[in-house]
Amino acid sequence: MSQLIAKRILLKISGEQLAGEFEGGIDPKTGLWLAQQLTPVFKNKVEIVIVVGGGNFARGARLAGHGIKRVTADHVGMLGTMMNALALTDIFEYNHLPTRCLSSIFAEQVAEPFIHRLANKHLEKGRIVIIAGGIGRPFLTTDTAAVSLALELNCQVVLKATKVNGVFNKDPEKYPDAVKINKMTFAQAVEDHNIKVMDKAALGLAMEYKLPIIILDAMKNQALYQTIVQQSIEGTIVS
Ligand code: UDP
Question: Taking the CB of the first residue and of the last residue of the chain, which one, N or C, has fewer CB atoms within 10 A?
Fold first, then answer.
């Protein structure tokens, strides 16, 4: 009998990850890979919420300037998350994963609205819920949206997908001698300036409500299944 890490989980995927081999935009092959990685998790009756980033299209902090207001830039960023969420929803459904895209920004022609009860209903009916538009307000990132939405939807854990498999004492892409930290407290994660793997606002919110976060390389074969279904965690647990 499998030992699920949680009945309901939230997975945060960045736009950069969805770009896969491309420099920007969406690489459908990455979406397909993710669908394949999540299929055995889904078959184990885990309720899955996905929050997608939009950094492969735009990030508000970078886009603002030369007349573009920060609020507008964040709106553009949120629309980027929408493009990712729509594409991923189709890829998931094509791969036999019942999925609904719910949007935190008004977009009735392209997605259902994010409504707490509706999201719960889809999850209870065994559908994956992909959330577009983060939390629908500017001056935030999808990391913070992920924690907030996980709390709202009663997810017991947030899985934050990163390029590397967890938190390291220094950048493992620059320093081959970097050491992975298996477990850390919220206080350590918030206070350590070298830890840039997740927004401090997101970590602070998770700390306040004691919502554990697992940082992992979700694109590594079987990593999601092993973590969620087999409780074999290779990444870093922040709790
Ligand atoms: N964004 C926002 N409010 C939200 C979520 C996202 O304003 O609730 C905007 C913000 O500009 C952000 C962009 O959307 O930079 C894309 O999200 P994020 O940077 O988190 O994407 P990721 O880095 O995960 O791909």
Answer: N
pLDDT at 192: 85
SS3 category, 204: helix
215: enclosing H helix or E strand = strand 213-216
Show the tokens assigned to 68.
């573009």
Distance 184 CA to ligand 1 centre (A): 25
Angle, helices 28-43 vs 70-94, to 10°: value is: 60
Specify the higher pLDDT residue, 170 or 147.
147
Q: CATH assignment of 8-238, given 3.40.228.10, 3.40.50.80, 3.10.25.10, 3.40.1160.10?
A: 3.40.1160.10
- Model confidence at 2, pLDDT cuts 50, 70, 90, reads low
Which residue matches tokens 């719910």? 102
Q: Which residue among 52, 81, 114, 137 has the greatest number of ligand 1 atoms within 8 angstroms of its CB, and so is best to mutate?
A: 81
Task: For a ligand 1 pocket test, name from 71, 78, 149 the mutation site with the most ligand atoms within 8 angstroms of its C-beta.
Answer: 78
List, in sequence order, every residue forming a beta bridge with 212; answer none if it has no partner: none
> Cα(51) to centroid of ligand 1, in Å?
10
- Pocket (CB within 6 angstroms of ligand 1): 14-16, 53-55, 59-61, 74, 77-78, 80-81, 134-135, 137-138, 140-143, 145
How far out from the chain centre does Cα 73 lie? 21
80 confidence band (pLDDT: 50, 70, 90): very high
